[in-house]
Amino acid sequence: MANQATQLYQQHNIEEYFIDKEPFYLEVADEIDIFEAAYAQRVPILLKGPTGSGKTRFVEYMSWRLNQARKRDGRADQMSPLVTVACHEDLTASDLVGRYLLEPEGTRWIDGPLTRAVKHGGICYLDEVVEARKDTTVLIHPLSDHRRLLHIEKIGEVLESHPNFLLVISYNPGYQSALKDLKHSTRQRFIAIEFDFPPRDLEGPIIQHESGVDITTAQQLALLGEKIRNLIGQGLQEGVSTRLLIYAGKLIEHGIAPRRACEVAVVWGLTDDHETQASVMEIVTSIFP
Amino acid sequence: MTNEHDSVIEELKKHPSALISAYEAVADEVTEALGPAPALRWAQQGVRIASQGPRAWEAATEYFKASPQVVQTIGFTQFERWAESGIELTAEAPVIAASFFRASPRVLPTLAPRHIAGWAGLGRGLSKGTWKSSSLAARFFDVSDELVQQVNFHELQLFVSLVQTLASRSYDLAAEALVLGQRVLPAVSEREELISLAKVLAETSWREVRGSFEAATRVGNSVDRRLRPRYFALSERLARQGLGNVSAFMVESAQSLGLLPQELQTMVLERAEDLADTSAEAVSAFLRTAPNVLDRISPAQLDTWFGRGLEFLKENPDAGIAYFRLESARAETLLDQLSSSIELEKVHGLLRMYSNALAGTEVELQESTDITHRNIGWVSVEFATTDGKSVFLPPTVDLRDTKSENFAWLKVVTTHQVGHLEFQSFDFDFHAPSAGFNDYREGIAEGLGATPGTTEVASFFDLFPVRAMAADLFSTTESARIDQRIVEQYRGLAPSYERVQNDALASRGPIEMMPAQQALMEMLIRQSLGQSSARIPSTYAEQARQLAGLLRSVRNRDATVEDSAEAALRMYYTLSQVPNAFVPLDDWEDVDLSNAGFDEPTLEEIVERLRAEAEEAQEEASGDEYESPDDVDYRGDFKPEMVQLLAQMRGQAEPGEEDGSESAQGISQAELEQALRESTEIDFADDAEVTTVAANMMKEMGADAPQNPAGSGYNQIPHVDEEGGPLEPLEPRSYAYDEWDFRANDYRPRWCIVQERLAVSGETAFYNETMHSYAGLIEQIRRQFESVRPEMYRKVKRLPEGEDVDLDAGIEALIDLRNKMTPDERIYWRRNKDERDVAVVFLLDMSASTAEAVEESSRESDWNAPGDPVAYTAWLRARRGETARRPYKRIIDVEKESMVLLMNALETIGDRYGVYGFSGFGRENVEFYVIKEVEELFSDRVKRRMDKVAPLHATRMGPAIRHATTKLANVDAKTKFMFVISDGRPQDRGYSREGVEKEYAVQDTRMALMEARNLDITPFCLTVDRNGHDYLRTMTGDLNYEVLPDIMELPRRLPQLYKKITL
Questions:
Q1: Alpha-carbon distance B827 to B811, whole Å?
Q2: Chain B: nearest CA to A97, how far in angstroms?
Q3: A:B CB pairs within 8 Å
Q4: A3 confidence band (pLDDT: 50, 70, 90)
Q5: What is the domain-level CATH number for residue A188?
Q6: Which domain holds residue A158?
């Protein structure tokens, strides 16, 4: 009995990770149709937008939605996994493709996440792709045009993609660093869907759903979001993300006073500059009693 | 020779034996140093000294003893003069001469030879032939060595003259002063001033001298160096006026000044000087309490507080002194009042950001005096208002008792003004439909056969015979709508808002004293402020209900400004039928209007009424003429007609926005005057004033105004259109560049000449001082930058993970495995980051405006610069003279310091960089100063050039950027950057003028930056101009710029930015 303790986590192989529950996503424009059309034609997709504007959630939602369609059509065996790689500045091509591991009797090759996605027909989502090292572009280019090939130099193989495979990358154009811009040769292999923070009327319900607060509070938070984003470029480099507003909502739902919740979740998270903090706090105190 | 020598020995032997033995002890040494003949002269001089009198041999003994060392320090001619001085002193008193000779070996090495006689003379001057005076003089020589080392001869003379003065009172004190001087003077840098002060004290209350010397050391520790001369001068002034205890004053005031930062010290000292003429005691009291007072109020408020005190002081000295001692109730009360008030300046940044956030557009916040000064129709200083782009607020708020309440008031006022922008009061469109009414406006206009007015709002007001009443109704309704929207949306603000409304309600005058029409108007205002029941004339209860009902109908979140107009229109219909006559006091009643509704009049009824009224207006109307009600203070000045007028004029000043509507054709001065005359939003005294205001508005908005004497003095800058053709670079190191003309959409070929010059060399001190004063920050920056220093190796081995297995490490690990040992798991290698290959140039703005003191940089802009070259130069000189005196830092100094810090950091990471300054005057003379070339190595030469970077003329950015681009394009580097650091928009003669052509300069600069970008150079603009957003956005295309709100942030920010952008 003792070793029958309930397992509180779940472990999946990368290629077996499917999203079961419908992620909450509200369409802002026609991005769902665009994604579906692009997927149908296997056109790679670039998601642009500031942090916390719903890019990752959108990909999850689309992955779920496409798999639902397959289930409905009785093609459950063709389910496409979602492989997400958060790129960072030390992420190299090997990290994506795979590498040799040492074993007692020699070495063994293991596939990296990109290789697995290519083999199993997954959607490979490279989050914040500009952060990765430049050598990753060597992999991305042949995968993102008509060839759909993955070259694995080290073992001398070329992989032709599984028909379901699709490359999705995201990037945040708000960064100022000129060295971290996406190259044109890379950019021009993707169709681009622009994300921005949802309008107030839409953001309210999102906050309500995600945090569980009542709709009035959610709309006040959305109003706060809208007002704060008016300050982009005048003290703020990025507007407050929907995510932070949801966190504020969650704190409020848990009994924290709204002004305080906004202070910790929004104001302090947003900036370290005292005057800007004070200004944003005045907006908060205007909106919340 | 020998005979002569023998005779010397003979002579010496006549004196006590100590003399001859002193001679013999040094004779050989001196002879060797001087040679035989001069040595004989030397010995003969000794004989002469000894023969001066009874105890002269003692002096001669000291003469011989001192000689070997003196011979080493001065030449023989001077040596003889020295001996001569000694002989004269011996004649005065041998004891003085003995001291003189004794002190010489220590003094002469530091005393200039030409002063030797003078020095001896100073001692002789002290001697008055008495025993006491001789011993004082001897004492003087004893202490001379330390004095001479630290104090120059002039100061020494002054000091001795002080000692002389003291000696005339008491030799003991004089002797004490000598010792004190020896100790204190070297420690004080303002000796002249101190001695001068002490001399005054020596004459008035001589015991204070000692105290003042002791106090002087404290002054040195606490008063800023630049202020000390003034401080001593002030003390001296007080001493002359007979202030009793000067030394105590110095100790106390120095201590309290020491609590203040330098700029406040200056201010306080200046004020103290103002007091000095009136009362020395007040000065002392003020200096003592100043830090305490400044703890509670701001420097600007100190002026108010001080001014009041000065008045009291002049009326009644005792009261004034008590005031400055903070021992008077009046001083305290005023202090409380001032300390609870809010100054706009302090919360400006905060509220500006707040307003921007709420409005969603860029709103500039200004003091209300800024708009009244412009004389374009706004006159009220204490009211908040907006011209559609800026919000104007009162400079100080002191209506409430505490700071937080005053701030709450200001926040409500700001929110209301911004509310007009957020909820679009000024977007009123005559033809746009309202949300909740049958739209009557067009129908009425048709019915009356009205022609469209100058603006949309004017078209609406034109419908009504009594324009003022229509305007009041509209303004009340619209303000009520805005208030409603704000309270609904900003629920956190609602309590403060309601309090302000209640206060406004409480301050309204008695309604029963008003004639009926005005009373109903007043009732409406009170309703809009949240009153539910109202006191009204019973006869007009029905009309009151109708008005209140209409007001209620716009107080919901769907109502727009057009709804306010429709409501106002119906209100007018009702109100205009009420005769404006007084109502007996018995005929008033209280009614509850909180649920009032309204009856809809028909379009025909309204048209009929308006037409009838217009005809009636020819005859005498019943009752009094309608007068506008009192303003509601927190709502300020609401002038929709003026705002629309200005917006329209702004629109026409910007080319390319001709949307075909009738307004885009432009407004002429005559039309504008007509519109102003009709408007009820401004009260004009006479017709000349209309012309003035109209002319000012035209200028303000950039339209061409006719020459007009009534408006002279305001911002009249004739635009200089630059004629002429391409220029040729004739001098060496001058280059011609094209300039972009955005109106022609083409380049003007070879339009500007850039003259490249090497920056003038100064001292390295500036560089070193900067390094010194920012030592802490430098360390921080160095640490940050060191983390990006490129490593030497491209491949990093033995990593726990990496690109591939490192063969050697892998084999070792396998061997370990086979031997059943735990292998090292770090068996991978990884390529390191690309090597840094960055070249960057920095362009520093050296325009005249950078001479502005940092604190005052925001006050006056370059726009007032005259266009005429002669006048411009005079203006510059006056301005530079003004700033040169200030001990403050100038903008350029901060720019330079920041650059020094960054250069230092760049040396750590090894990026190649060039530093250039630019300025100039006119297109033929764009000055481009080389401080450091990209390929030049950093050296003392660079440091020296940095020193002399100073404000010069104007800012023609385009050619400077093009020249820097050319330089950078010739550098071989993978990544190239260009930083432009400026303090304002680009401008130069014929390059830009406010309103007239500012766009030209911005567009040319933009083009220059684009050219750089096309050559793979990433430009970045950094400005300390708070108004930088508007043009920088156009100039740089969104991303690559930053506006620093506070220039003092620059030293910290620049290296951060550099790191961020280039990594």
A1: 9
A2: 10
A3: 117
A4: low
A5: 3.40.50.300
A6: 2-194
